[in-house]
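User: My instructor asked us to take a sequence, write out its structure as C-alpha cells, and then describe one feature of it. I'm not sure where to start. Here is the sequence I was given:
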Amino acid sequence: MALEDATSGIDIASPTNGLSSQRPSMSLSKSPSAPYPRSPASKDASRWQRGTTAATAAKPLKPFATEDIRILLLENVNQTGRDILAAQGYQVDFLKTSLPEDDDVHVIGIRSKTQLTARVLREARNLIVIGCFCIGTNQVDTQYAAKHGIAVFNSPFSNSRSVAELVIGEVIALARQLGDRSNELHKGTWNKVSTGCWEIRGKTLGIIGYGHIGSQLSVLAEAMGMTVVFYDVVNLMALGTAKQVPTLETLLGVTDFVTCHVPELPETHHMIGQVQFEQMKHGSYLINASRGSVIDIPALINAMRAGKLAGAALDVYPAEPGGNGDYFTTDLNLWAEDLRSLKNIILTPHIGGSTEEAQSAIGIEVSEALVRYVNEGCTLGAVNMPEVNLRFLTMEEENHVRVIYIHHNVPGVLRKVNEILGDHNVDKQTTDSRGDVAYLMADISDVNASVIKDLYQRLESLSSRIMTRVLY
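Assistant: Let's start with the prediction itself. The C-alpha cells for your sequence are:
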C-alpha cells in the first residue's frame, strides 16, 4: 500500500483519504488518479438515504482507493460482515484468533476476547475506527480511542434474543438437574430421581437489569408460566405483568431464580457476593450471562457448598481464555477446579450470543456502521463519539466536499474553524461534543482540488486538531 507522511503535503491529483491525527507519523493512503472517484452506492447505505430518487441519487463519498483501506477482522467475525466490507472494495483480512499486537490497519473488527488497550492503540497509527461485533465494549479503551479520533461501534441488541433463550434453557436445565443427569449417563450411570427437581411454572424469576435482554427474557418467562420481578437503577415500563422492585435486596428475597443482565461498571463489580447470597431464598438458583466481574465466584462456591443455592449457571468469567482449548484451569482462575467440582452447575464458554442468527445480525449491523463511518463520516451508534450525521450529497453536487474535523472540546475552536470555512459556501454544517472530544461535519460547495488542499492543510494547522478527514 502506497503511503506518505501526513506532513509531506497532499497530492490533490491523486487525493488522499484525508486522514490525519495528533498521533506521530499518521499515514495517508493514496487514491486513484481521478480527482473525484465515484463508486456505486452500497446496499446498506441506501436504506439510510430515505427519499432518494433516480433524479437525486446519493453521491458516494470515497476520496481514497478502497483497496488501500485495510480492514482486519478477528475472532471469526461472521461471514455476513466480511461480505459487506469486501463488497466496498476494501482489503479485508480475517483471523480466527485475537489481535497480533504489532499489526497496523485502518479498521479493526473484534468480538469479546481481543483487548484493545491504550498500549495497543498507540501503535495502530492508521486506525480510524473499531467495530465490536458484540454487545460489550469493555475490551476497548474507548476513552483513549476517542481522544485520538478513533470511533468505536458495537451491536447493542442484535444477540438479545439468543441470550434470553439460553437463560430460559438454563432455568429449565437447573430446575431439572439436567446437567448432572446427562454427565452421569455419559459415564454409564443410570440415576432416575425426582428429589429436588421442579417445574418452572409458578416459580418467580428475578431479573437484574431490564434492558434489551432482560425485557425479552421477561416475556419468555411469563409465557412459561413464571412470575417475573425485576430490579433496575432507573424506573422502566414493565412488559406483560412483570413488576419492578425498589431494591436488589427485595428481589433476592422473593425469587426462585435470579439472572443478571447488567454492564461491567465499577457499580456492578461483585454485585452478587456473600451478603447477597445470604439474602437469597434457600434453594434458589443463580444465572449470570452478563459480565464475569458481576459475581464473586469464591462466594458463589461457598454458597453452593453450604446448600444455600440449589444450582447456578455461568456463561461469563472474570478471566477468559483467548482461544478454544484446555485453558479453563487454575492457571487462569485460581478457583476453576473448585467451580468445576460443584453439582448442578452449568458452565458454558461465553456462548450467550453464539447463534447463527445473532452473529449474522451482528455482522450486518456493525459492518454497515463501519461502512457509513469510513465512507461518509457518520457517527450514529458510536459509543465514544458524539452522534453526528448530515444529509447525503447528491450526484448533481459534483464540486462539493465533506469536511470532518475531530477536535479537543475547548473554547474558540468553532470560531477558528469557521474562519477557515467562511471564505467558501457552506451548504450545511453540524457539530456536537461528548466530554473532551467534539466532532464537526460540514459540506462545502464549489470547490476544486486546490481549495480542498488548502482547507485540509489549514485545518491540520489548528492546535485543537485530533483528526481531519476530507470526503468528496
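For the description part of your assignment, you could build on this observation: The longest helix spans residues 356-376. Try explaining in your own words what that tells you about the chain.
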